[in-house]
Amino acid sequence: MNPTLIRRFSAIVCLALALFCLPLTAAALDGVTVVLSEEGGAYAQVADKLRDTLAQSAARPPVKLVTLRTLKDSDSLRADPGQLLVAVGTGAMQALAQQNQPAPILNVLVPRAAFEKATRQNRRLGDPHRFSAIYLDQPWARQFALIRHTLPNRTRVGVLLGPDSAELAPALRAAAKAAGLVATIEKIDEESDLLPALKRLLGDSEALLAIPDPLIYNRSTVQSILLTTYRQQVPLFGFSPSYVKAGALAAVYSVPEQIGQQAAEIIQRFAADRHLPPPQPPRYFSVGTNAQVARSLGFVLDDEAILAGKLKRITEDEP
Amino acid sequence: MRIYVTTRSAIGGCQQHRPARPLSGYRLAGCALLFYAGMAQCAENATPSETAYLDEMPVVLSVSRLSQPVDEAPAAVTVIDRQMIRDSGAWDLSEVFRLVPGMYVAYHSAADYAVDSTVSYHGLADAYAQRMQVLVDGRSVYSPLFGGILWSDIPVALDDIDRIEIIRGPNSASYGANSFMGAINIITRHSAETQGKFVSLSTGRGRDEAIARLGGQNGDLTYRLTAGMRNDTGENPKIANPLTTAGRWDENLLDDKKIRLLNFRADQRISSIDELEFQFGYNGGDRQEGSAGGNVIAVNKRADNHFELIKWRRALRNDGELSVQFYHATESSFASTLDTSNGNTGNADVIADRYDLEVQHSVSLGESTRAVWGGSVRYDKTYAPIWLDGDTQAKPFHLTRLFGNLEWHARHDLVFNLGAMSESNSVTGTDITPRMAVNWHVAPEHTLRLGRSTATRTPTVFELTLAQPYLNAGILHNPLRPERIDSTEIGYLGSFPEFKVDFRLFRDRLSDLIAETGSSVANDNLNSGRAVVKGFETQIKWDIGKQTRVIYSLSHVLVASKNEDDMSYTNSVPTNSQSLMLTHRFTPNWSASLIGYQNGETHSPGTDWGPDKDHAPVYYIATYRRWDGRIAYHFRTGASSGELALVVQNLSDAHYFEYRHDNQPPGRTAWINLKLDL
C-alpha cells in the first residue's frame, strides 16, 4: 500500500466513525448556509443581520452565503445533514424544496401563502422540524390591533380581496371580530372591477386594510386606490413601509433586519436541540405612520414606537 | 373641513416624530427596490412572493395633494365638495358660490364683454368683480382686460371638479395681487380618479347639455378626455312685471350661450417620486352680447378660450416637495359691433394671452416648522382695440413674484403662520404683502384664529388705458396705483359630534380704491376711494342623524365710506345675506335637497339711477329670496351606476332682479339630468 492509499483509507475510516458517532454529537451545528433568492437588497440585509447576530452568539457556527444564481450555475450545494440551510425569499425556498436536501431548511422573507404552497407541492407537510419558516406577513390580530389603536372610534374595516386572496375571507372576518371590529369584504375577479368595488366598499367602511394581492395592490393601481380612499376620508392601512410613504395612514411590518434577527435566534436554539420550531409569524416588527396624512384626515396618532409597543404587548398576551 | 395645501400658506405642519431607528424601513425598501426594479411587474404572477412587501410604491399623497385641516389654516376657508355641488343643483359654476357666507353672486349679462355672473366677496363689486382671484389647478383665470372672471368661459366641466376651496379674506401672501377680498381655488380630480366612461345629459326649459368623459390608463400613464356641449337661452327677452316700459326697462339683455367644451388631462408617473401632469382645455362657442334695441350691440360674438399646462412634481425626503409649473392660456372672443343708428360696424375682438412659469419648494425645517417658498414669472398681452383706445398693439404686462410662508407649531395647541409675497410688475412697480396668523386650539376641536393680512389689486389694462390720455395731456400727474386692503380678523372653529361651526369677525380697511370719474380726474387722484368693511359671518354644518344634513351660512356686512368721487361703496353689499341647504336621503335610492338664498338690498356702483334719470337715484336691487330644489334617484345596473335627477330653480317663480334692472332670471326653471358611470 502506498501512502496515498493509506491516507485515503484512514480518511474513509474516520468519516465512517464520524458518521457513526453523529447522533452523539447532535448538539453541534456544523454550519449554516444561507441561500439568497437574489443578490443584495432585502435578501442581503436579512443575511447580514443573521451573520452578525450569530457571530456574537456563543455557538458561532460558520455561515456561508450563496445566491440562487450561483447555485444554479454550479449545482454544487450538497449540504450535509449537519448543516442548516436558510432560504431567503420565495425563489430560494422553492429551489431548495425541490432539491430534496438532507439538511433542514429554515425559510425566511416568505409570505405565509408561498410557504404553504411550497410545503404542499413538495410534500413537506408534517415535517415542520426540518422545513419551517418565519413568515413575512403579520398575523391578522396584529394588523387589526393596529387599526383599533390608531382609530379607536372606528369599527368597520373594509377589505378588498382578489382571486389569489379570496380564500382568506373567513379567517379575516374571524380575526376582525376577535379584535372587536367588523370586516366588510368585497371580492373582485378582474382589474376592471377594482374601482367600482372599492367605491362600494368605501361607502360602508371606516378604514381600509390592504391585503397583498397582485391584482389589487400593485404599482399601477395604488394611485387610484390611495386617491379614492383619501377623498372619501377613509384611511388605508398598508403592509409595507413603502405604502406608508405612498400615502397609507399606517402599516405594521417587519423589515429585513428584524427577520434576520429572528432567524439568528432560531438558529441558536437549533444548534442546541436540532429542532426547527413550527412556522411562525415575525416576532419583531415596526409600525410606520404617515403624519401628514394623519394630520390632513384629522387623526391624532401615537408615536410609531409607542404604537409598536402596544401591539407587542397584545401579541405577547395571546396564547 | 380641510383646505388644499397648494395654498402656500397651508402647508403641512406637524412633524412626524421618528425616533432614530437603526432599522429604517423606508431606506430598506428603497434599497430593495433599486435592486428589484425588474421585479416590479409582478402583477400577473400567481405565485405569492415577497415582492409585494418589498416593492417601492409611488408617493401618491404628496404634501401638495393633502389638504390642511381648516383649523390650522391661516385664513377662513369654505370647502365645497363634489357632493355639495351636486346637491346644490347648480347649473353654472358661479352658482355654487351662493352657498358661501359673505359671497355675493348675481347673474349679470353685462352689455360690455362679460356676459356672465358677477361673483364677489363682501361686495364693492362692479360688473366684473375685480377684487377676487380664482385659480383652477393652480392656474389663474383672472381676466387681464377688465379684471374678474368670465365664469362661463373657463374650460372646466362641473363634473370634473373635485372640490372648491374659498379663502374668505385677503390672501395676496399666497396668491399675489388681486386675491383682494378673497380667493377661490378650484381643484379638478386626478385622472386616476376618473377612470372609465361617464355621461351626463340634461334637458329643460331653455337649457340643454351633454357631457361625456373617457378615462383610461396605460401603464404609469392615466388620462381623461371630457367633451361637452351646452345650449343656454338664459333670461327671457322680456321682463315680467317691469317697473316701467320707459327706457327699455322691460327688456333683459341678450345672453344666449352655446358652450363647446373639451378638456384633457394626463398624469404620467415617471418614478416613485416624480410625476408629470399635462392639461389642455378648450371652451368656445357663440355668445350673445348687448341689448336688442341698443344703439351699439355686439353681434355674432364667438368665444374661443384655451389653455395648456404642464406641471412636474417631485416628492422630496421628509415630506418636502418641489414643483415646476408652466401654462399658457388664451382668453379670446371675436365679434363685430353694430351701430343700429347708422349701420356702422366695428371690430370688437379681444385676445388676451398669459404665459406663467412657477417654481415652488416646500420643506420641513426641524420638527415643528415647515416652509414653502418659490417664485414665478408671468407675461400677459392683451389685444382689445375697442376697449383700449383703438390701439391694435397688444398691451404687455410683466410680473415677477417671490413668495414664502413659514408655519411654526410653537406648541401642540399653537400654530403660527408668517407669509409674504413680493411682486414686481411692469405698470405699478413693487409691492410686498405680508400675512400673519395664529391659530390656538383652545380645546380639542375648538380653535381661535387671529389674523392680519394685506393685499393689493393691480389696475387692469382697461383702467390703465383709460387714464393714459389724461397723463399724456398733463391733466393727471399721478399714475394709477394698486388698490390696498388691510384686514384684521378673529375666527372661531368648533367641531361638535354632529355640528361644525365657523364664525368670523372681520374689519377690512380699503384704500387707494380706483375711481375713474370726472371729479377724480379733476382732483388728480384716481385712487381716491376709501372704505371700511366690517361685520361677521358664520357657516354651520349640522348632521341631523345619518341621512340629513343642513348647511347654513349667514353674513352681516357694513361698509363705511365717504363715497368720494361719485363712487357708491356704502350700499354695494347686502347688509344681510344667508343661504341654507337641506339634504336628505330617504332610501339608498332616493335623495333630495332644498336650497334657499336670501340677499339683502344692494346698490351696485353705477346702477342706482332710475329709469327717469331726473329722479335719480331711485333704483336698487331689493331684498330677494329664492328657493331651489332637487330630487334624485340613484340606480345600479350590472357594473354601471347612475343617477336621474330633477332640478327646479326658483321654485316659487319669483320675479326679481339680480345685479341690475336688466337682469331678471327666467322664473321657475326645471331640468332633468341623467348621469351614468359606465
Number of strands of chain B: 32
Distance between the termini of chain B: 30 Å
CATH class of chain B: Mainly Beta
**Class by alpha and beta content of chain A:** alpha/beta
Question: How many β-strand stretches of chain A?
Answer: 11
- Main sheet of chain B, how many strands, which sense, barrel? 22 strands, antiparallel, barrel
Percentage of residues assigned to helices of chain B? under 10%
Q: Which architecture of chain B per CATH?
A: Beta Barrel
Q: What would your notes on this structure say?
A:
The complex is a heterodimer of chains A (319) and B (678). With 319 residues, chain A is an alpha/beta fold. Helix content of chain A is 45%, strand content 17%. Chain A has two domains: 26-135 and 258-273, Response regulator (Rossmann fold, 3-Layer(aba) Sandwich), CATH 3.40.50.2300; 140-253 and 285-317, Rossmann fold, CATH 3.40.50.2300. In chain A, strand 3 (83-88), helix 4 (90-98) and strand 4 (105-110) form a beta-alpha-beta unit. The longest helix of chain A is centred in the first third of the chain and has 19 residues, at 3-21. The model of chain A is unreliable at 17-27 (pLDDT under 50). By secondary structure, chain B is mostly beta strands. Chain B has a 22-stranded antiparallel beta barrel. At the A-B interface, helix 2, helix 5, helix 9, helix 10 and helix 11 of A face helix 1, helix 2 and strand 2 of B.
Question: Could you outline the blueprint of secondary structure elements for this entry?
Answer:
The complex is a heterodimer of chains A (319) and B (678).
Chain A: H1 3-21, E1 31-36, H2 41-55, E2 63-67, H3 68-74, E3 83-88, H4 90-98, E4 105-110, H5 112-121, E5 131-135, H6 140-150, E6 156-161, H7 169-178, E7 182-187, H8 194-202, E8 207-209, H9 222-231, E9 236-238, H10 241-246, E10 250-253, H11 256-273, E11 286-289, H12 291-297, H13 304-317
Parallel strand pairs in A: 1-2, 1-3, 3-4, 4-5, 6-7, 6-8, 8-9, 9-10
Antiparallel strand pairs in A: 10-11
Helix pairs in contact in A: 2-11, 4-5, 6-13, 8-9
Chain B: E1 2-4, H1 25-36, H2 51-54, E2 67-69, E3 76-81, H3 82-88, E4 103-109, E5 115-121, E6 132-136, E7 139-140, E8 161-168, H4 172-175, E9 182-188, E10 196-204, E11 207-218, E12 221-232, E13 257-269, E14 274-287, E15 296-316, E16 320-339, E17 345-347, E18 350-364, E19 369-383, E20 395-411, E21 414-425, E22 429-443, E23 446-457, H5 461-472, E24 483-496, E25 499-513, H6 518-522, E26 529-544, E27 548-560, E28 576-585, E29 590-599, E30 624-637, E31 640-649, E32 669-677
Parallel strand pairs in B: 6-9
Antiparallel strand pairs in B: 1-2, 3-8, 4-5, 6-7, 8-9, 10-11, 10-32, 11-12, 12-13, 13-14, 14-15, 15-16, 16-17, 16-18, 18-19, 19-20, 20-21, 21-22, 22-23, 23-24, 24-25, 25-26, 26-27, 27-28, 28-29, 29-30, 30-31, 31-32
